[in-house]
Predict the structure.
Amino acid sequence: MDYETPQFYRVIQYAAAADRDVVEMVSGSPDWDPPEALREGLRDYADADPADFQYPASVGLRGLREELAQRRGVDSEQIIVTNGTGEANHLAMAGGLEAMSGDEILLTDPVYPYYAGRANFLGADITLVPAAEDGHADAAAIAEAASGDTAVIVANTPNNPMGVTYSAKTVERLVEIAEANDALLVSDEVYDHFDYAGRFESALAVDSPHRVVTNAFSKSMAITGWRVGYAVFPHPDGPHGNLLDEARTRHMLTNVTGSRPAQAAVLHALRNTGPDYYEDVRTRLRERIDTFTDALDAVGAEYTEPEGAFYVMARFPDFPGTFENVERLIDEGGVAGMPGEAFGEARADWIRFSLTTDRVETAAERLVEFFD
C-alpha cells in the first residue's frame, strides 16, 4: 500500500476534472441534515458571554464528558474529547506503541488506509490480517498472527470499507487476544449508529485495561467538518492507567484543546435529539443499499452484504478494482468508486462505493448500463 499519497483525493480530483457528469461515491461525508438541535445549540452559543468563548478544559467540556460517561457507562475522567476520531485513534495507537512491549500493529485487510498510514507514520511494524470470506474480522487468524511483538490491534466496527458489523463474540475475542499478548485493542466505533443487522457491540462491554474505544459525531450527526470526537481510555487508577496520562499530554501539546462552540452544540444536540433522527437516517440508507445492491445483482457482481456503516464493496466480472479501471468507470460510466487496492491486498480487485449521495439511483442505473 502507498501510505504517502492521499489516495482518496486522487480519485475525487480525477472525478472532478472529468469531461462528464460523475456520481461521486468515494468520500464518506454525509449528505443529509444534522439534527435540528445541533443548529439550535450553535445559535444559542453565538449569544453566550465572552467568557464562554475562551479555552475550555484541554480534555473537553465537562458537561460533554459527563454526558458521554453516562451514556457509555464509564467515568468521565476516562474520556478525552478529541479533534475527531482521527486524533482519538492517533492518541490510542501512539500510546499503545509506547506502553506495550511490542513494535507491531495488526490491521485487518482490507483496511481503512488512514490506520495503515498512521501506523507507518508512527514507525510501527505493520501486519495485515485478511478478513474472512464474509468480510468480518477473522479472529482465529488474528490470534495466530498476534505475538509478543504485537503492541496494538485495530478494529473498526461497523466497518469501513467492508460494511459489516462485528458480533459481540468477535469483539470479546479481540479483547482476549490483546490481553493474551500484552497488546492494546483500539476499537474505532464511529459508525455505531449505522447498524442494520442489530449485532453491534461496543468493546466497552468488555471490562479490560487492554482496550481503548474511539468515536465521534462526524457521521452520526452528519458533521464531518466539526471535528468532535472522543476516546475512552482505561481507568487511570488501574493497569495501563498511564495510557490516559500520556494521551492527555500529547493531546494538549498538539491541540491545546478542542473547539468550544462545536462541543457545546454537540452536547445540546445529544440532550435534545431523540432516536427518531437516527432511525430516519438508517431508513434512508437501507433504501440506498437496496437500490445499489439490486444493480450489483443485475450485473452479476459479487459483493459483501452491507450490515453497517454506509459502504458497499463489490467485485465485477473481468473488471478488477485498480486505479486504472476506477478511472475508466469515471470516464465511461460516470460513477466514481474507490479502488480496492487502496485498502490493502485481500480485496485488491474489488471497488468500494460510499452511499452518502442522493444520486444512488442514478449511479445504479449507470452501473447496469456500463456493465451490460
The longest helix spans residues 275-298. The chain has a mean pLDDT of 96. The chain is about 40% helix and 15% strand.
